[in-house]
Amino acid sequence: MGRKVTVATCSLNQWALDFDGNLQRILTSQSEQANSLCACVCVCVCLLRPIMHHNVRYNCRVVFLRILLIRPKMQMANYGNYRELRWFSPWSRSRQVEEYFLPRMIQEVTGQETVPFGDCVLSTKDTCIGSEMCAELWNPRSPHIDMSLDGVEIFTNSSASHHELRKADQRVSLVKSATTKSGGIYLYANQRGCDGDRLYYDGCCMVAINGDIVAQGAQFSLDDVEVVTATLDLEDPQPEHSQTRRWTAVKVDFSLSSGDDVFLPTHQPITWQFHTPEEEIRVCVFSLQAGFLLPLSGGVDSSSTACIVHSMCVLVCQAVQDGNVQVLRDVRRVVGDEAYCPQRPKELCGRVFTTCYMASENSSEGTRGRAKDLAAQIGSAHLNINIDLAVKGMLGVFSMVTGKLPQFRASGGSVRENLALQNVQARIRMVLAYLFAQLSLWARGKPGGLLVLGSANVDESLTGYFTKYDCSSADVNPIGGISKTDLKSFLLYCVDQFQLPALTGIVAAPPTAELEPLTDGQVSQTDEADMGMTYSELSVIGRLRKISKCGPYSMFCKLIHMWKEAFSPSEVAQKVKHFFRMYSVNRHKMTTVTPSYHAESYSPDDNRFDLRPFLYNTRWTWQFRCIDNEVVINAEAHRDLVGPDRSGRVQTKISKLCWGSGRM
């Protein structure tokens, strides 16, 4: 006879300061656990709260049948997107417990005056339960290691781990690793939904035992509450450990297992189903006002945003068909029709999504046609707007005041004139986008306004390759944390997933802003030519800048090896210096960039993730001089070795010298 226990974990769509809604979702999760006959200590993931103890504020987890334990967080998340030390102090007294006097209102409910407060475990009649909180799992000295050595068999983790592309594998690996090394059961719960800022929490609650995942929650879902249960046998073989220093144990007069469990089936290991990056982009949805307005240029970026909205409509229709009452209620509120029931994604898209192509005299028929075709295929309400009249009016005001009329470079104008004429087009598009967002529904006799969607990718933000206060300035930018490379892959995925053949031509076309005059009716301006590097090169540079924390010189030292097959050291030097000039000159744009969903680990978001100066010495004199010195040394070494001999044998030696050391 074993010791079989039924355990549960959950993902809840909790929202800061939504006390009524948060309480209701907690109660719903408890009801679902009860319906699953979950005979376990009720460790509520969402009963995380700030608690003052000795005038110090701690981030705490409250464990209860009645209140059994208040467990303060010991390792703070104070990096990347998190600033936990702004609000809380860590509990630094490992394995120590104190008495905590409950507030009078709680005493009246529970009949308790004091409860244990600190780092301890729960000892029931049949097992021992330990707790980790969020970032503690990711720490090299995770509490579960020592707890398992002291006989803890069930570990619980209440987490708020945000989504990034390709991150789910890290979570699953950590949980599997914890129970592979230590044995036992691991219950992982994670927040779902938006934090009210730039992060999206993607759920992924799970149950593991002895290195195997046995129950998996959805990574993305429109359900506000998801409960995952599993029945497991604590007698399953576990690694043997030598005893370590003991934890204080709170004794609980309760048993998780029953004596009559011979015929109770247990959950078996499963294979985790991971989403591809393209699928992750597709299913990260966002909320509605009365709908969205998107300036649709016919390029990769705005088309990606359009496909994300279309994907949202697909998910909403599926949720309604599956009987999700809350989603149906939300859709009816958005469209202003209490009798409405969405049947097809294309039809729903026509109700909540407006796209507009904002043409100028510099726009090509190719981009106009691609935007029109995509809008027709996804079902958006599409507008064709010509901005030339507004541009001429703006330039007319300038000419009337100054007596001068700027010209494009193609017509003999200066670089400054050329840039100003591009910027005025871009900024007029932003103004018109907001005008149509506010009044287009009114013009159709419908209530409400639209949220303006932006579409600047993470690589353009890195270099500042966008006009400040242009169409990148919007209410929300769904793709602001996604690279151009991933967006192209996402569009190719959507071609087959949603039957959108217009995307094939969009991906094949060279990225262009179309702000300069056409040449014989054809586009003469491309993004990569303007930026001086390709998007794939920018993605590599972005990761080195943020993840590897490289400045100009250290980045050069890495890239001469990474790019040795494509570029000489002097060419690498030019690209690195060009990037850092663009980055430093344009960094100020990140202080006003549109809020975007955080999806990439090298995001330059200035609001909370990538906190850096926005005013730089753009000459980088010392760093660039170090790079130039290395290029000179390499050239001299090359010249000395080559001499008059141009044979392949000598060239091989040169290659080894030039690329074989960090100095070169």
TrEMBL record:
Molecular function per GO: ATP binding; glutaminase activity; NAD+ synthase (glutamine-hydrolyzing) activity
SUPFAM superfamilies: Adenine nucleotide alpha hydrolases-like, Carbon-nitrogen hydrolase
Biological process per Gene Ontology, one example term: NAD+ biosynthetic process
Pfam families: CN_hydrolase, NAD_synthase
Source taxon at top rank: Eukaryota
Transmembrane segments: none
EC number: 6.3.5.1
InterPro entries: C-N_Hydrolase (IPR003010), C-N_Hydrolase_sf (IPR036526), Gln-dep_NAD_synthase (IPR014445), NAD/GMP_synthase (IPR022310), NAD_synthase (IPR003694), Rossmann-like_a/b/a_fold (IPR014729)
Keyword terms: ATP-binding, Ligase, NAD, Nucleotide-binding
Ranges for domain CN hydrolase: 1-234
Pathway where it operates: Cofactor biosynthesis; NAD(+) biosynthesis; NAD(+) from deamido-NAD(+) (L-Gln route): step 1/1
Recorded GO CC terms: cytoplasm
PROSITE patterns (UniProt xref): CN_HYDROLASE
Annotated catalysed reactions: deamido-NAD(+) + L-glutamine + ATP + H2O = L-glutamate + AMP + diphosphate + NAD(+) + H(+)
Family per similarity comment: In the C-terminal section; belongs to the NAD synthetase family.
Description of how the protein assembles with itself and partners: Homohexamer.
Designated name of the protein: Glutamine-dependent NAD(+) synthetase
